[in-house]
Amino acid sequence: xxxxxxxxxxxxxxxxxxxxxxxxxxxxxxxxxxxxxxxxxxxxxxxxxxxxxxxxxxxxxxxxxxxxxxxxxxxxxxxxxxxxxxxxxxxxxxxxxxxxxxxxxxxxxxxxxxxxxxxxxxxxxxxxxxxxxxxxxxxxxxxxxxxxxxxxxxxxxxxxxxxxxxxxxxxxxxxxxxxxxxxxxxxxxxxxxxxxxxxxxxxxxxxxxxxxxxxxxxxxxxxxxxxxxxxxxxxxxxxxxxxxxxxxxxxxxxxxxxxxxxxxxxxxxxxxxxxxxxxxxxxxxxxxxxxxxxxxxxxxxxxxxxxxxxxxxxxxxxxxxxxxxxxxxxxxxxxxxxxxxxxxxxxxxxxxxxxxxxxxxxxxxxxxxxxxxxxxxxxxxxxxxxxxxxxxxxxxxxxxxxxxxxxxxxxxxxxxxxxxxxxxxxxxxxxxxxxxxxxxxxxxxxxxxxxxxxxxxxxxxxxxxxxxxxxxxxxxxxxxxxxxxxxxxxxxxxxxxxxxxxxxxxxxxxxxxxxxxxxxxxxxxxxxxxxxxxxxxxxxxxxxxxxxxxxxxxxxxxxxxxxxxxxxxxxxxxxxxxxxxxxxxxxxxxxxxxxxxxxxxxxxxxxxxxxxxxxxxxxxxxxxxxxxxxxxxxxxxxxxxxxxxxxxxxxxxxxxxxxxxxxxxxxxxxxxxxxxxxxxxxxxxxxxxxxxxxxxxxxxxxxxxxxxxxxxxxxxxxxxxxxxxxxxxxxxxxxxxxxxxxxxxxxxxxxxxxxxxxxxxxxxxxxxxxxxxxxxxxxxxxxxxxxxxxxxxxxxxxxxxxxxxxxxxxxxxxxxxxxxxxxxxxxxxxxxxxxxxxxxxxxxxxxxxxxxxxxxxxxxxxxxxxx
Length: 867
Prior knowledge:
Elements: H1 2-7, H2 9-28, H3 43-58, H4 62-66, E1 67-68, E2 75-76, H5 77-84, H6 101-126, H7 138-151, H8 154-159, H9 163-169, H10 172-185, H11 189-201, H12 203-227, H13 232-264, H14 312-323, H15 329-345, H16 349-355, H17 369-389, H18 394-412, H19 420-438, H20 445-469, H21 474-489, E3 500-503, E4 505-506, H22 511-514, H23 529-537, H24 558-563, E5 566-571, E6 580-581, E7 592-596, E8 599-603, E9 611-614, H25 631-643, E10 650-652, E11 656-660, E12 665-671, E13 676-681, E14 690-695, E15 698-704, E16 715-720, E17 725-733, H26 737-745, E18 749-753, H27 755-766, E19 769-775, E20 778-783, E21 790-797, E22 802-806, E23 809-811, E24 814-816, E25 820-825, E26 830-836, H28 841-866
Parallel strand pairs: 3-5
Antiparallel strand pairs: 1-2, 4-6, 5-8, 7-8, 9-21, 10-18, 11-12, 12-17, 13-16, 13-18, 14-15, 14-17, 19-20, 20-26, 21-25, 22-23, 22-26, 24-25
């Protein structure tokens, strides 16, 4: 054991050092367990914790892992798993209770950082391409510093919330080692396996790595033909082996890739365009190389430039590489041109979109930066060997060049993006590193590693501090999760039953996944656009800017809630739980069934079942969603199509108004022309600001539009009788000039609901259908003997993955109302069964098996040929 530890000391240190540095950052920034806030932030809080919690609760139920009714109106969970959870590391979450999933993710960040450092160190030790000369023992220390720098680059610390990317990025050094083994020794096995694993673990990051591999192979071709003078036969033979192994790896990855590509077709994305536009001025491109560039996050610039910093040593060695005479000038040309093309490819919008599967990413820009960071790390190590074999004063020229570049950047950007104190910090670190390199044999390894730790801590402190500041507050979250779970447990559907639950507030948009119930809220990258458009068009969460999630948003109208099967409404007390959402209670929920600690649960006795009869006119598709559209007009249209006649579910009200410019208030006057629940919708395109709404002197909501994920759709004003005066007052807090102008010109939509019409439609639709049973990917129901041939609609999104049988005979389904599943059931008593199969999964399984077979045959053939 002692001998093994002694032999692998450098690898053990490469794993432990990044973990220790991250722990120091946690301690300094008071992250859990050194403080109350977790490092978890951003999409990790908005999406990943809830998705992992759902997986943790359903990992033994494969039906729930195929299709989930907790994904908004329902959806394909396999593709969600393929993007977020496919890495084997996520199986460790099964060891944690659901409430500790946020802690698991924080530990997972530490684990991935350690593994990235370990795998990078292994690559630097074993790479024949990089290890060209035998130098001093100080190279072991440099390897440790460079591998730690790659593991804790500013790219990692900035984007650590998207941990599923780094589950694949940590494999990049091993994949490059396998590529080298393939091209040099004709051994393709590990390359095919690791490439397939990258695509399986996260196909998106796997795609970015695939693009990088093209750059690497082209550089290898240039090296072989221009420097080594290899024969065309030699090159072609290895390229053929690479193509076969890469093709086999791609086929292995198709197990998740094919179903995911099919699902993403339903998600709107920015179209690919050919343009000469850039993401930022060219002068800003090198900013990410320097320590402290992450502080530009305070100005928002970090989303426009790639984060490239690892350590100051890396930058010095890369510059030294191009200045040393002992390195072949042709190697410098190949590496220089390659780095330049890589840098420019992430600078211009067209090539940038190519890195991201020919579209623009939503948030977390420059996700491809890690390939540049890796290339710089490898080049720095290569330069270190030559330099440490014979240290010279050339390093001082590197320092002078770097200081000049920093000065130019500072003055060129007028100190906006690289401030003077940042320049001074970089100059001091650069000079110290240069002195240590020049006299490397006189310094202990501990001094070099210590300086590297200071370098990384100073570079990543701001990003870590910002992440912790907006991270989950653990005591509060733990209390919220426990209390909300207790309430949901009292009303969660039993196995086979189906109904949805709505809430006034939430921990995040994925609460249905978090607490394993059926709801309307969801935020995943795989949610079809037509589904979120439908929910927004009828008055739930309104999608501003690029946002694309759905949200119950404290309900739309009572009739629409019932149509979508919302049987229970949970009103969380503001004093009991501090949550995101609306504080007010919906007036049309009166039947209280549970009360604890101020939190109340109400039941609707008129919620529609999952399947019900509709007219054949429901096949017509509503118009496209627009935030200006009147949701009550859209709902009237829907109810008319469902009933097959004019229903007049909502009656439009005449609205008068009075504007007070001095205190930014607008008063609207309405006289109800019908008895029923009254609703308000405010169509605002510009930044709406924060709006306070009161009705007849009573506060309705004080936080309308306060954040982009609080109430912003249809607002329930209360129940009124015909002839009642409805006095609505809007108070806009510090509006922008264009926003106030829009409010002054805008007339809100006010309507009153027809309770009698709703009851008639419900009675018409819900008769003669019963025995509805739901088991995630399987649904069954029946019709009685009095059933006449009619259309049946299920309030789940239309999906070709659903296979329908009536009395064992396949029938075709169709899309109703532009969103839902529909099927025609003939007259008489029938049993209907729906079974969900993930689209393209059979093709994915076949591709996976084919890839394994092809790779095995190739390895056996080459092994036999070598023998």
